[in-house]
Design goal:
- By secondary structure, the chain is of the alpha+beta class.
- The longest helix is centred in the first third of the chain and has 37 residues.
- The strands form 2 sheets. The protein has a 6-stranded mixed β-barrel. The protein has a two-stranded antiparallel sheet with strand order 2-10.
- The protein is 50% helix and 19% strand.
- The radius of gyration is 30 Å and the shape is elongated.
- It has 2 domains: 168 residues, no CATH class; 178 residues, no CATH class.
- It starts with a helix and ends in a 5-residue tail after the last helix.
């Protein structure tokens, strides 16, 4: 009986209930869009570090885990490799350069990342081959570069850098393609560390070439489960270094924590607004049909049936709105170009949808309680 009454009223008042479903759909679009933006911005900032094939990153001490301020030289790498429990160590350097499209279009900002061939830090390729020679002009490009340039194995790409006061151009050969590994909101190109050191900005006059210096070192352990203990061991045995795991590293990236905190706050208030909107709508509905509910109770309809009817209505209308909003959000995100940092992971989308499905019952609790408290005689105006 409760389901019949609930769905019958929804069907007979389609316009009214469609309006609240549309409002829920818009709230759903906003929540999922913020969730997708949060995920996309976070990934664009941390993707390379998150996917590293090593458990620990080593920084110069006193740099507050800054990948740009830290400097790690070859002598320090040799010390790291002698630490018991360390399987492999790779130097990694970061810089930003411009990629010059072959068709003469707008230049693209990319992260040029220097890695040691065959060592931690070098990404795996899904097509082509890994970097082999330390001094070659071969590079691996990620899917962000592939999407923007249509790059293929064997293609030549040109990068522009500023060295000293002049602009220099370098031609690099694509030897491998890897999955998306953005760093600092930019697609990534991976070059041998020696090549990276030669072509990176400001490597001209005044810089010493006595030791190959990178920003960080990536450490792969023999026993990854022993990472916490190894952090302390490395810091004790190797001087002037600070060690962090991958999560600690990306959370220390400039602006990362503040950005995620801001977007999470926006999501929370959007959910809160959704609860108030749905609750307000069904409260108005309740006030408009006090007399009808009173009559139904007078002829024997139980409070349990009245409450269940209202709850079914709330859940049904809310679910329709969430379904429309989710479909609209997926279509909206699919229409964005690859340069827009927005993506929705399966777990993030599922969590958001479940939360959105709960805002209906939460918002409608007050109206359900109000329905249960209606007295038939008062509702029909017969009470003294």
């Amino acid at each position: 009986m409760a389901f019949y009454l609930a769905l019958k009223e929804v069907w007979r008042n389609k316009g009214r209930f469609l309006l609240i479903a549309a409002v829920v759909a818009l709230i759903t679009v906003l929540v999922l869009f913020i969730a997708g933006l949060s995920e996309g911005l976070a990934a664009a900032n941390r993707e390379y570090i998150e996917k590293l094939n090593g458990e620990l990153l080593v920084f110069q001490s006193g740099t507050q885990l800054s990948t740009t301020a830290s400097r790690i030289g070859r002598s320090r790498i040799a010390e790291l490799r002698r630490v018991d429990g360390v399987e492999a160590v790779g130097q990694v350097g970061f810089t930003s350069v411009k990629l010059v499209p072959p068709n003469g279009g707008e230049e693209i900002n990319i992260s040029l990342i220097g890695v040691e061939p065959g060592q931690p830090g070098e990404p795996p390729v899904f097509e082509g081959q890994q970097l082999e020679r330390a001094r070659s002009n071969n590079v691996i490009v990620d899917e962000g570069v592939i999407a923007r340039l249509g790059a293929k194995v064997g293609d030549t790409i040109r990068v522009k850098v500023t060295q000293g006061t002049s602009e220099e151009f370098f031609d690099l050969t694509v030897t491998g393609l890897t999955d998306r590994r953005q760093y600092f909101f930019q697609p990534a190109v991976f070059a041998p560390l020696v090549t990276w050191d030669r072509i990176r900005p400001d490597t001209g006059a005044g810089q010493s070439n006595s030791e190959l210096v990178s920003n960080v070192a990536v450490v792969r352990l023999r026993d990854p489960a022993n990472a916490d203990a190894m952090k302390q061991i490395i810091e004790q045995q190797v001087s002037n270094v600070e060690v962090a795991d991958r999560r600690t590293t990306w959370e220390a990236l400039p602006g990362y924590a503040a950005q995620q905190s801001t977007l999470s706050t926006q999501q929370f208030f959007t959910f809160f607004i959704g609860v108030l909107v749905v609750g307000g709508f069904f409260q108005i509905q309740t006030l408009q049909k006090v007399a009808q509910i009173g009559m139904l109770k007078a002829i024997g309809l139980s409070n349990w049936t009245v409450g269940l009817t209202a709850l079914v209505q709330i859940v049904t209308v809310n679910a329709i709105g969430v379904a429309i909003g989710a479909a609209g959000t997926l279509a909206l995100i699919a229409s964005f170009p690859v340069t827009v940092p927005i993506s929705i992971a399966g777990s993030t989308a599922l969590t958001s949808v479940i939360a959105l499905l709960l805002i209906g019952p939460l918002g409608g609790v007050v109206s359900v309680i109000a329905l249960l408290r209606i007295e038939p005689l008062r509702a029909l105006g017969m009470a003294q």
